Amino acid sequence: MALAIVGDFSKFKSKSLADFIFESNKGKQINFVNVPAEALK
Fold it and tell me: Is the separation of the CB atoms in 3 and 27 below 8 Å?
């Protein structure tokens, strides 16, 4: 089962968080997206 986390993460300036989101989005289990329509793909 995949998990999509929807939100605007650009307001967070943490490099560690940006790296985590980048690496998570490479896989198929956890994805960070901006809008719900992206999550449903």
Answer: no
Label residue 28 by pLDDT band (50, 70, 90).
Answer: confident
Give DSSP secondary structure letters for 1-41: --EEEES--TT---HHHHHHHHHHHHSSSEEEESSHHHHT-
The answer to whether 8 and 17 are in contact (CB under 8 A) is no
**23 band by pLDDT with thresholds 50, 70 and 90:** very high
DSSP lists the bridge partners of residue 35 as: none
- Whether the pTM exceeds 0.90: the reply is no
CA distance 40 to 20: 21
